[in-house]
Every structure is written in C-alpha cells, then in structure tokens.
Amino acid sequence: MPGLQDGSGLCRIWDGQIYALTGGGAEQLNSREATPAPKGLLLPAFGATFSEWPDFANANPHGSAWDAFTLTGCSDE
C-alpha cells in the first residue's frame, strides 16, 4: 500500500473513516469541529491493511497492528 498524497505535502497511509473513542463508545470524528481531543481513535481495518503493507511485513514478519489507539498526550512536533 503506497502512501497517499493529499495536497498538504504530507504522506499518509490511511484513507478510511476515523472514529473518536469516548467513554460511551465510538463516534464519527469530524476534523472541522473544534472539540477536545478524544480518549482514543478507531481506524476500522487499519491493522489488517497495515500488516499487509510490504515495508511493515518485511520489518516485522511476525508482527501485528491494531485498529484502536489510546491518546496519551500532545507533542509540539
């Protein structure tokens, strides 16, 4: 899976829907709304897709990737 170009100059590998994980479940994340950061993110099917990417598979032949991520803090980078 090659990286996706979105016109921002950044290379990203995910083009699917992203959900905000809240205390009560998952809600569709809308990047245009000014809301506090969620407790975590859910990227459906990310783990399976990323694990099949040749660069990941070559570097981690027995590795796995997940669909849910917990946010722990902010960075200036």
Low-pLDDT windows of residues: none
> What is the H/E order?
EEEEEHHE
Beta-strand content: 15-25%
Fraction of helical residues: 10-25%
How would you state the average pLDDT, rounded? 78
Which class best fits the helix and strand makeup? alpha+beta
Please give a quick description of this structure.
By secondary structure, this protein is of the alpha+beta class. The protein has helices at residues 46-51, 54-59, and strands at residues 4-5, 11-12, 19-22, 25-28, 40-42, 68-70.
Verbal overview:
The protein has 77 residues and is α+β, with helices and mostly antiparallel strands. The chain has two helices and six strands; from the N terminus they run βββββααβ. Strand 1 (4-5) and strand 2 (11-12) form a beta hairpin. It is globular and about 40 Å long.
Core attributes:
globular, alpha+beta
Topology (SSEs and partners):
Layout: E1 4-5, E2 11-12, E3 19-22, E4 25-28, E5 40-42, H1 46-51, H2 54-59, E6 68-70
Antiparallel strand pairs: 1-2, 3-4, 3-5, 5-6
